[in-house]
Amino acid sequence: MRPALIVLVLVLVLALACTGGAASGAAQVRVLFLGNSLTAANDLPAVVASLSHGAVTYRTVAPGGVSLEDHWNFTGARDALDDGPWDYVVLQQGPSSLPESGINLREWATHWADAIRARHATPAVYEVWPDSQFGVRLSFPGIIRNYRAASDAAHAVFLPAGEAWQAAWRRNPRLGLYGPDGFHPSKLGTTLAALVITARLTKTPVARVALPYPARTAKLLRTAAAVALRGA
Questions:
Q1: Is 8 a member of any domain?
Q2: Helix (H, G, I), strand (E, B) or coil at 231
Q3: How many distinct structural domains can be found in the chain?
Q4: What is the number of alpha carbons within 13 Å of residue 122 lying toward its C-beta?
């Protein structure tokens, strides 16, 4: 092969390699999850990363029972935020269905959102579901109202996982989204929440997210997530 042709081939190979690296880097979405055991159960962030086929990289700070106020004061979450850069910071606390807990959620989601934007990241609010011991139908309206109000006040991306659970139950009321304690999610419940988060943060249509379930179950989860995301 002539020297000039060899040089041309090497240049093309290097250009393709650089382009591939840039595309791979551009696809990465760096996410910091700040929550409690509803985030830690079944390792939700790892499920998000798996559903995204590695497009999402993450760090999690999610000790049991903490609120966003607690995260600000003593969990090390502020250090984790400083350790970025992050593209998104996902904020979650307990169901917060009561008026007073809704006020707390709104206050601290806003407080966190200001700090997140100051570090050039985007805040996202992860809506959860009720503890079944306190009545699912009675508690859900307050949760939805308070999480939506917090997201609006914080000018955050809204992740309506709780509403996806609702949409799934409308199609199959016996769907096992709760784990044994009736509060933390089953693996199926975590997968549905992760589907909502993955689709929203990676801007991927739910129909294109592969799920580790039989076709009928996967279709139900995708439909429920799509309904929730359309209303968000």
A1: no
A2: coil
A3: 1
A4: 14
**What's the token pair of residue 124?**
């996202």
Residue 97's pLDDT is 82
Residue with token string 């769907």: 175
Phi-psi bin for 220: left (phi > 0), alpha (psi -120 to 50), beta? alpha
pLDDT tier, 137 (very low <50, low <70, confident <90, very high otherwise): confident
Sign of the four-CA dihedral 149, 196, 96, 76: negative
Q: Identify the band that residue 18 occupies on the pLDDT scale cut at 50, 70 and 90.
A: very low
Q: How crowded is residue 102: how many other Cβ atoms within 10 Å of its Cβ?
A: 19
For position 36, which CATH number holds?
A: 3.40.50.1110
Tell me if 114 sits within 8 A of 156, measured CB to CB.
Answer: no
Instruction: Calculate Rg over the CA atoms of the chain.
Output: 20
Q: What are the backbone dihedrals phi and psi of residue 207, each rounded to the nearest 5 degrees, phi first?
A: -65, -20
Q: Which domain holds residue 73?
A: 29-230
